[in-house]
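This entry is listed below:
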Amino acid sequence: MANKLSREERQKRREQRRKNQHKKAKSWLREWADALLFAAVAALIIRTFFFEAYRIPTPSMEKTLMTGDFLIVSKMSYGPRTPMVLGVPFTNIYMQGLVLPWARLPGFDEIERNDIVVFNYPVDLAPIAAKTNYVKRLVGMPGDTLSIDDNQLFVNGEQAEPFPGIQRTYEVRVRDRVRLSAAKVRAAGGTLYQTQQPGVYRVNMTRQVAETISRWQEVTDVNPFVLPDGFNEYDRREFSFSSGFMNHHHLPPTVVPFEGQTVTLTPGNYHVYEDILTRYEGNSVQREGEQFIINGEETNEYTIRQDYYFMMGDNRDNSEDSRFWGFVPQTHIVGKAGMIYFSWDSERWLPRFDRILNFIHD
């Protein structure tokens, strides 16, 4: 009897140990699940209201920002936006047709001219927060008058401040029967393009590199390349600041729209304001000759309801920006580019160690 009771007791103890181990395993899994859930929620809050990572996919901001740079974007600088859509966190999947009421919370800084800004690409056909993120330099504030003359930007009548990283195309002439070395140009910091004209090359580079190349023995002349005023590169584009011939090296004086501005619409200027009225401010617009009908009312005057900005890439001749698709609404501003936390050179398959943890200066 004693042996029988002893075996039953041992069996009970083994079962109890198995239950305890099972409880410990469940407890361990629950702790990990809770930790992962907390981390995901914390990351989502940080990404929504504080900071977001962003990768530079194109050369439109070189040499200021390089293809392969990974940025930290501060959403607190200009004020974070509350959620606009419902979707799967950390993906581009969102619920179609549902846009949430949203607001922009106070930021600790004001957006300023020459800031490097991340924003939603305005002409994407998607809810604002689901649009592609772009990064450019803000060159025109609401109310500024901008013009571009021979590829030189003017703001309120004065030539815009030059930045060391800004690139443009230069025409380089060399001596007879001499070739310009692409490898030598690349080592100096430029990108060489062959032209049809013998002895003439086009090089995309900064002003500092242009000054260096102008001192080379084989080079006779270096001048900025400018598209002729009558050359039209907009024949295949939906947007243009001009109803006639227009290219990105020339821009007639244009006022950047601002909240409260009343504009008089005409058949000659409607192409500039059409996206603002219909796409960004949600109005119904019809035209009958020179008469406009806005939301069912005959009127040629419209009061703009928010501020707009004019963006340009620092790689001026290799950037599609406001010159090509117009103004950026205030609602589309995401944040300010703050720091490069990592940089990857895909040509050499090596990190750019000199760029890691660099703060971005305007």
Notes: The CA atoms of residues 12 and 324 lie 79 Å apart. The two ends are 89 Å apart (CA to CA). The first helix runs from residue 2 to 49. The helical segments are 2-49, 182-188, 207-214, 270-280, 322-325.
